[in-house]
Amino acid sequence: MQLRGERTVFTRNSKSLNNQTMQLSEGRYQIDGVDILGLVDQFNAPLYVYDAATMKRQYDRMTKAFSKVKRLRINYACKALTNVNVLRLFQQWGSGLDCVSVQEVEMGLLAGFAPHDILYTPNCVSFEEVQEAVDHGVRINIDNISILEQFGAVHPNVPVCIRINPHIMAGGNSKISVGHIDSKFGISIHQVPHVLKVVNALGLKVEGLHMHTGSDIYDSGVFLQAIEILLRAAADFPDLDYLDFGSGFKVPYKEGGIATDIEDLGEQLGARFNEFCAEYGRDLELMFEPGKFLVSEAGTFLVRTNVVKTTTASVFAGVDSGLNHLIRPMFYDAYHHIVNVSNPEGKQRIYSVVGYICETDTFGVNRQLNEVREGDILAMANAGAYSFMMASNYNSRYRPAEVLIYEGQAHLIRRRETMEDLLGTQVQVDVLKSTVPA
């Protein structure tokens, strides 16, 4: 049997936005019972807020969807949100960890993950960094033949995973499509014969095969096609212990938006994987590495309105943040739903929400919001993944604080930066120090 490629696997409309992470109760917006405006009073703005209950719900959905697979491992792709407290949550829930740098590996070990539960999947790194990961005892995933040859020469007895590029164009944006023929990621599926020669010549033990086609996949048929490609390649590797199908599962960003029906995918892919294991002769472990699927909806970004500015063409709500804190709308043309949490009963008006950076940093154009007044707090949904992690100090602005809502309580998990933080790594040259006139 082959997986059927109906679009239904990846096209379930979402009736609610942010999937109950932010709720309106008695005229006040809350996250897991915690008042949002109270959070701003306590921690100030701009502020990232994460809901642990939403993360757990998404993690449980995945494990339940693939419950018919005998061996399943969900490796949280921690590049989405790497705060050590978030990593500890996933470790406690039984997750593994997908890391793309040795620094993420070290953060994962600090958070309590066992080395065997961490898969290190870098690209275009030096062999020295790969060696550091080996020294930490984590699983190694190699995505080019040059490093594979170096690895085999030095570590012939260390099991290795190989990342395959299936030459599939998938993903919601060109910047997050990583499995096509022009991508820097993975070893071409057409180079598998070369890989086998290297493996046999150096006596390498290949314990896993990996692929990741991209994020925000819209066409299920494309994703399922890539899976069949990897399954065919797996038949040439007799010592496999696991197959990693990456991720790319889509979450809704707007009401009625497209989302991955993970339950339907689990039914189809789980059956196909079990069938393959029977053909292969033993039960392999099925791995996924979701990031956005697990944490995107859990995050809410809170900003304060500095000014309401009317021009001949637009009404701008200018806020105390910008692309330095949330670059996704500018970088990916990403949509983040915006709510005026200070004025939930206000009359609906049209605004373009913009930032305070000396560049064009527009969060949303012509959005219908409850009337925005200077000082109002605006909430941006789906801010859990690739949001704070891509923040910067552009314009010498401080990065915001992060708060985790866990079991109905707010916990500060990263303080707001200060001028001392900005200067902390700068080395001031004595001869360039200015003198203050007497």
UniProtKB/TrEMBL annotation:
Residues 48-384 form the Orn/DAP/Arg decarboxylase 2 C-terminal domain. It comes from the Bacteria. The active site is at C358 (proton donor). The modification N6-(pyridoxal phosphate)lysine is found at K79. The keyword Amino-acid biosynthesis applies. Coiled coil: none annotated. Pfam families: Orn_Arg_deC_N, Orn_DAP_Arg_deC. GO terms for molecular function: diaminopimelate decarboxylase activity; pyridoxal phosphate binding. InterPro entries: Ala_racemase/Decarboxylase_C (IPR009006), DAP_deCOOHase_LysA (IPR002986), De-COase2_C (IPR022643), De-COase2_N (IPR022644), Orn/DAP/Arg_de-COase (IPR000183), PLP-binding_barrel (IPR029066). Residues 54-296 form the Orn/DAP/Arg decarboxylase 2 N-terminal domain. Keywords: Amino-acid biosynthesis, Decarboxylase, Lyase, Lysine biosynthesis, Pyridoxal phosphate. GO terms for biological process: lysine biosynthetic process via diaminopimelate. Substrate binds at R328, Y332, E359, Y386. Its cofactor is pyridoxal 5'-phosphate. The keyword Lyase applies. PANTHER family: DIAMINOPIMELATE DECARBOXYLASE, GROUP IV DECARBOXYLASE. Belongs to the Orn/Lys/Arg decarboxylase class-II family. LysA subfamily. Homodimer. Specifically catalyzes the decarboxylation of meso-diaminopimelate (meso-DAP) to L-lysine. This is Diaminopimelate decarboxylase.
